[in-house]
Amino acid sequence: MRNPNRRVLVTGAAGMLGTALCSSLTRKEFHVLKTDIRSGEKEIELLDVSNYEEVQQFVQETKPHLTMHLAAETDVDKCQLEVDHAYRVNTLGTENVALACQRWDIPLVYISTGAVFDGEKPEPYTEFDEPNPVNVYAKTKWEGEKIVQTLVRKHFIVRAGWMIGGGRKDKKFVAKIVELLQTQKEIPVVTDKFGNPTFTKDLSENLLLLIQTGRFGLYHMVNRGGCSRYQIAQKIAECMGKKDVVLRPVTSEAFPLPAPRGRSEMLLNYRLSLLGLDRMRPWTEALKDYLSTLQQEEIVVH
């Protein structure tokens, strides 16, 4: 993948990771074919991965040298409530992309999730642990993994953790805590769910390093070190200097949700480490970097 003129198809390019990844690819002088099912941006072409004919036609016309499949329904509770939608997008959508890559012999990068595990293991999961998903979202993503492994000889399956990044596009945990710290005096935060924050910028850079090796296979790629949601909130409050806000520890029972979650989604970048390819920073450093970005965008108000 060292040829700067190579075309890279990115599905889900308008999302948090897609935005960061496309920026990294552009900086490396790849020709990026940005696609998404929704787009307010002129550079992003509309592509519904759940439409088989549409995917086949797009790939046939553009002939990418590499496909990076990020498009997914990532709303865990929506997946639990709308099962057909979840399988149509996450599983069959992945199958559609994989079949196109198989047909034209295109290497495929598939972004998966640490949620494929049941969360019972006290230590972080490695690539050699057996998945056992506990909700519909995780099941659809794991089925996607199996499809990619079966259909595409040249593939990278990369499991990420709790995604952070996106700036104004961020609708996830960090953005919610940042907003609450600026508007509330007391915030209940869950202490019994554990995972790895994964900064989109770090993930994008390490992904590009990995694909250039040509060492296809399954990888975990998260910022180093596991933590609870409560510990993340503590670090955000510390970085923002919000000493006057009380973070109240609660269990996940305080926030009943449609989809069950495992106790732990903590991952270890085991294969990357063994190969000397782990460039992911400790999560505390990555979070601090991201919060400084939010401050520059005036999303964090002091």
Strand proportion: 15-25%
Number of DSSP strand runs: 13
Q: What pattern of helices and strands is seen along the backbone?
A: EHEEHEHHEHEEHEEEHEEHEHH
Q: Report the helical percentage.
A: 40-55%
Walk me through the structure.
This protein is 40% helix and 18% strand. A 7-stranded parallel β-sheet has the order 3-2-1-4-5-6-11, sandwiched between helices. A two-stranded parallel ribbon has the order 7-10. It has helices at residues 16-27, 52-62, 76-81, 83-103, 136-151, 173-183, 200-213, 229-240, 270-274, 283-296, and strands at residues 7-11, 31-36, 45-46, 66-69, 108-113, 155-160, 162-164, 186-190, 194-195, 197-199, 217-220, 227-228, 246-250. With 302 residues, the protein is α/β, with parallel strands linked by helices.
Summarize this entry quickly:
With 302 residues, the protein is an alpha/beta fold.
Write the SSE topology.
Blueprint: E1 7-11, H1 16-27, E2 31-36, E3 45-46, H2 52-62, E4 66-69, H3 76-81, H4 83-103, E5 108-113, H5 136-151, E6 155-160, E7 162-164, H6 173-183, E8 186-190, E9 194-195, E10 197-199, H7 200-213, E11 217-220, E12 227-228, H8 229-240, E13 246-250, H9 270-274, H10 283-296
Parallel strand pairs: 1-2, 1-4, 2-3, 4-5, 5-6, 6-11, 7-10, 8-13
Antiparallel strand pairs: 9-12
Helix pairs in contact: 1-7, 2-4, 4-5, 6-8, 8-10
